[in-house]
Write a structure and sequence with these properties.
Layout (H helix, E strand, L loop, with lengths): L2 H21 L4 H9 L3 H27 L7 H17 L3 H14 L3 H29 L1 H12 L3 H7 L1 H25 L1 H5 L1 H18 L7 H23 L10 H17 L8 H11 L5 H35 L4 H11 L1
Helix pairs in contact: 1-14, 2-15, 3-4, 3-12, 3-15, 4-5, 4-15, 5-6, 5-15, 6-7, 6-11, 6-13, 12-13, 13-14, 14-15
Length: about 350
């Protein structure tokens, strides 16, 4: 069985398993009632913030591309970003490659350098996630502690009593060190470095590194920071606005939306599934229980929050797939064509 097949099937199995575990005791009637009784004015406002979120993220990506002298329009950058969002809902991790591939087809931006710019964005996003974690701990220390206790308590006693926890850490450290030593020995081998395949890989990595380093060359660094912070504020507002769409969450504090944003972001990294299916439902339902909701109500609300956000993302992403073929047929960005030609000389 090949690894690409495994990478595609395992997230699906995990998503279905988590979704079944969370929803197995929830009456369908309660789920249906939640959607029927929702306040659609607040849902519409959340849809607007989701659209703004994609616009802000595309604007930020445009800045990193401009640092490498590629100048796709904001509209084309948004379309590429939305195409990537659709792909990530189908195959976890495919969004980055899809959006870069889309921009190459519409504006001749090389995939390798596009991926490099995306990697740079991801590094910044991880830094922002650490800030979110710190802010969440500061505002909701007691609840976060309870959340971690509830999440890990079934695993910790056996691990500690059996000593397997220490063994696991030691084994992991040993594997990492052995891997580093092996890679270092290969790099020092002259014959290995001269191999055509290795040289080709080095060329790709060079372009990726160039894209990554574009973060240092951003012409408007202040705007880049503002757009980064704004994207997280808008993501927070989306969840908070959705609270007002249901009578069960309308009284929750803003800190609950922050906790959900932080926990769901961490869950998406730790257990990546298609569009967060299963992972989001499991983690967010546990967060909502910390704010006084019973298990059934928290699962219903987690399902509602996820479905609302996914529906709007699917709507916008579907429109992008209709527009991409039109953009491909149009004349590509002449400035990018010229830059690509200069690189090949």
């Amino acid at each position: 069985m090949n690894s690409p097949f495994i990478r595609q099937v395992v997230p699906i199995v995990v998503a279905v398993g988590l979704l079944w575990y969370v929803l197995k005791d929830v009456p369908i009637a309660e789920l249906s009632a939640q959607f029927q009784q929702a306040n659609y004015q607040w849902l519409f406002m959340a849809g607007v913030t989701i659209a703004i979120y994609h616009l802000v993220r595309a604007s930020r990506w445009q800045l990193t591309l401009q640092a490498m002298d590629y100048t796709p329009s904001l509209f084309r950058t948004v379309i590429a970003l939305l195409a990537g969002a659709m792909a990530s809902m189908i195959i976890p991790g495919a969004g980055e490659l899809t959006r870069c591939g889309t921009l190459q087809r519409t504006d001749n931006v090389p995939i390798a350098q596009g991926l490099g710019s995306v990697v740079a964005e991801r590094v910044i996003d991880i830094l922002m996630l650490f800030i979110l974690i710190a802010l969440t701990f500061f505002l909701e220390f007691k609840r976060v502690g309870q959340f971690l206790t509830n999440l890990l308590s079934p695993l910790l006693p056996d691990a500690y009593t059996s000593g397997s926890y220490t063994l696991l850490l030691a084994g992991s450290a040993g594997i990492v060190l052995a891997g580093i030593a092996f890679i270092y020995s290969l790099v020092q081998n002259q014959a290995y470095r001269q191999h055509p395949l290795v040289q080709r890989i080095n060329g790709v990595l060079h372009n990726v590194a160039k894209g990554f380093m574009s973060i240092k060359k951003v012409k408007k660094p202040v705007l880049f920071v503002v757009l980064t912070v704004t994207s997280y504020v808008v993501a927070f507002l989306t969840t908070y606005l959705l609270f007002f769409a249901s009578s069960q969450t309308v009284s929750l504090p803003p800190s609950a939306a922050l906790t959900i944003l932080t926990v769901s972001s961490l869950g998406g990294i730790a257990v990546p599934t298609q569009g967060g299916i299963g992972t989001y439902h499991f983690l967010v339902s546990r967060v909502l229980m910390l704010y006084g909701m019973d298990e059934t109500a928290s699962v219903v609300m987690a399902t509602f929050l996820h479905a609302a956000q996914t529906a709007f993302s699917l709507l916008f992403s579907s429109l992008s797939f209709l527009i991409v073929p039109i953009l491909i047929k149009q004349k590509k960005n002449p400035a990018n064509d010229s830059l690509l030609s200069n690189q090949s000389i």
